[in-house]
Amino acid sequence: MGLKTRMRLIPLLLCWMSGTAFAAGLSPLVVSPDLVRGSRDKAATPAAAQAADKPAAQQGAVTEKPAAATAAPSSSSSSAVEVRPVRPAGDEGAAVGVPVQPRPSAGASGQVVRPEQTRAPVAMPAAQPSAATPAPGGTEIRALRISGTRAVEMVADGDAELQRGETVLSADKLTYREPTDEALADGNVRLREGQSQVTGPAAQLVVGEQVGEFQSPAYRITRERPSLIEGEPPRVVSGGGQADVMYFEGENHYRLENATWSTCTPDDPDWYIKARDLQLDYDREIGTARSGTVVFKDVPLLWTPWAEFPLVGQRQSGLLAPTFGTSNKTGLDLSVPYYWNIAPNYDATIAPRYMSRRGLQLAIEGRYLGETYKGEARVEWLPRDNVSGEERSLGSWQHQQWLTPQLYASFDVNGVSDDEYFEDLSTRISVASKVNLVREGRLMYVGGDWWSASALVQSYQTLNADPDVTYTTPYRRLPQLMLNANRPDLIGGLAATFQSEYVKFAHPDEGMPEGTRVTVYPSLSLPIQRAGYYITPKIGVHQTQYDLDRGLPGGRDSITRTVPIYSVDAGMTFERDINLFGSDYVQTLEPRLYYLNVPYRRQDDIPIFDTSRYDFGFAQIFSENLYTGGDRIADANQITAAVTTRLIDPTTGGERLRALIGQRYYFEDQRVTINQLGGSVVEEPRTGRRADILAGFSGHFNRENSLDSLIQYNPRDNWTERFNVVYRYQPDFAKALNLSYRYARDILRDVDVSGQWPLGGRWYGVSRLTHSLKDDRLTEAIAGLEYDGGCWVFRVAAHRFATNSEDTTQAFFIQLELNDLASIGTSPVSLIKRSVPGYGTINEPVSNRVFGFD
């Protein structure tokens, strides 16, 4: 079918006519102030010049397919044209390979040249080529009837075909002039090279130089787009359409008049670019449209007098497609970003953003990448917030660099003008819930395989957006110096580790303690590993020195703490073959014991600089300390017992099921706590002999179904402290259902349901609902619809989430994505990927589809 040319212009979108462009991702159209470009001289090509002197029956639009792999003309005088006659279609009486006799013609020497009566090709000696038009090499011509003069002109009639390398030109009738390397094709003309193809009624082409023209072509040009992910294969990108005439202007260069271009199927594309003059440059991978219109479903979306667009999705400078949405905090939210491709390793995005409730904001983001460094910076500025009446701003800069092969440096600096900045101006829960913005610089030296050193300077900006909750600013590290070493290969099988730290803590609140802490912790272990079991005894001494500028009231200003630490870690592994539900497995049984002894040292007059209690779990019950940081070393005389069993597929080695249970037993009461001298009671010391029981289960019953759960049970008080369970059903791409329940005593009880599923007719639904049973409120909700149009995708989504105990933020997303060209609107994809496990982007190539979490 031909393309529909009927256009119903939308007045609202035409207001962008002097400055709008379209693109996909980092591939914007470029809008030039040069509104008028003169057309090129069609007679500029040798083929066109010769066509002017031909009879009308021999004139045709010159044609060629993109010929990146076409053999170049050879200057060798020994080259020859091979003529291959073929059997007439339907001629049952003719012998195999014997063509119908063509009319004899006189050769240059008066000799009559006749096609061979066998399947062997006729080798026609070529005339000596001139310097300007060398004779081509490796050219083959096939047809039902072939006539002509040696080294001058050959006429192939009936299923004619000319082939040179990967370039194949076929037509009802084909005339080839060897001295000029010119081919004239008439009737059902097709030019093919690889996966690219041009068809039409007539063509004229200089084969080697790849210049000429094609009348009324329908074309499809295919190229490979390198993957941005290491290890991924390149992706094939095709674009094509129709035109009145197509000019070939050298390898990979084409110009078309009154043409269309689209990545949709060429018969009846849902969207296309329609331009009076269209240039396709596959060296730069850029298309240029003059007087161009983007048409979607026969409706013109936008028009521009001059614009560039990506042919294979690469980045280039220009206006990105506008993004728009709405939320209860910003109102109507519209942004028209400009992308600046400064260099192959430098770029920037300048994004004016209009919010109907807040005002006009300007955002600038820059990125850079070198052989030894990379980074990005972002600035946002709102001169006046219409709601608060204040100026609001954001600044962020991250940089990473290898100064030498052993020395690494980085810094991360972030800041906003006020505590409510993210809550008011962001539509993402991951950003709106930010509390501490880090500001740090880091140096790290790797001295070899066994030691390293680092230096850190760090502070934070703390945001208190919720008036009912006050967050304490973390301590600054001004600086922190660390030296660590690990030697597992000492004499007698011994292994040694060494950890050390110097850190100066400071705080903006003058009422908070400040000072320095020096820590040294050497240890020695003897790992004994044998088939089926292991045992590792270990001994170390933890030495800490505090010099406090401001100590706790009634506490010491200089504190020394020396704590010896003893431990023994042992385990065994048993295996057996087992058959369950008709399948063979290897089952393991892995018991483990861990004994730890740490004597008590008084620590309540040591300030809490960077210490908190670990979350109770399987990793923590096998650790040396209950606490993070270095301000508390918990006393211990305890043993932990656990057992794990697994079902392993013997053919793949994959784990199909795992179950484990563990518990810690105490021989003494707890004495060290996180409480501080003169402060409130934060932690009650433990007096029982048994810790909570931990049990976990993880199983992949088959490819579609999986279950993960964890329970923490308190045997002293006979209640459950925590319980989590997650079930996932994922039978295929873009089909995922997730159900989870989370419980923490006196803290939360949440039910979470999420999923993505085809609804039929190319429609897909996606949603997530998180309901707090404790507070009886919906804390987060996402609902969306997607439509896969083949070469385009439409998405609409709504998002509602609680920013604090009383306030919520609501956002609405709408997006039209034209594959490999433009994305109009605000994309909800990143939000959905974070929120819905197993979500699949429906217009990603199959090779890029990843099941499960992103």
TrEMBL record:
Subunit structure: Component of the lipopolysaccharide transport and assembly complex. Interacts with LptE and LptA.
Subcellular location: Cell outer membrane
Gene designation per UniProt: lptD
Protein name per UniProt: LPS-assembly protein LptD
Function: Together with LptE, is involved in the assembly of lipopolysaccharide (LPS) at the surface of the outer membrane.
The entry's keywords: Cell outer membrane, Membrane, Signal
Composition bias, Low complexity: 46-80
GO BP terms in the entry: Gram-negative-bacterium-type cell outer membrane assembly; lipopolysaccharide transport
InterPro entries reported for this sequence: LipoPS_assembly_LptD, LptD, LptD_C
Main location group: membrane
Region (Disordered): 46-118
Domain LptD C-terminal intervals: 391-763
UniProt family annotation: Belongs to the LptD family.
Keyword Signal applies: yes
Signal peptide stretch: 1-23
Source taxon at top rank: Bacteria
GO terms under cellular component: cell outer membrane; transporter complex
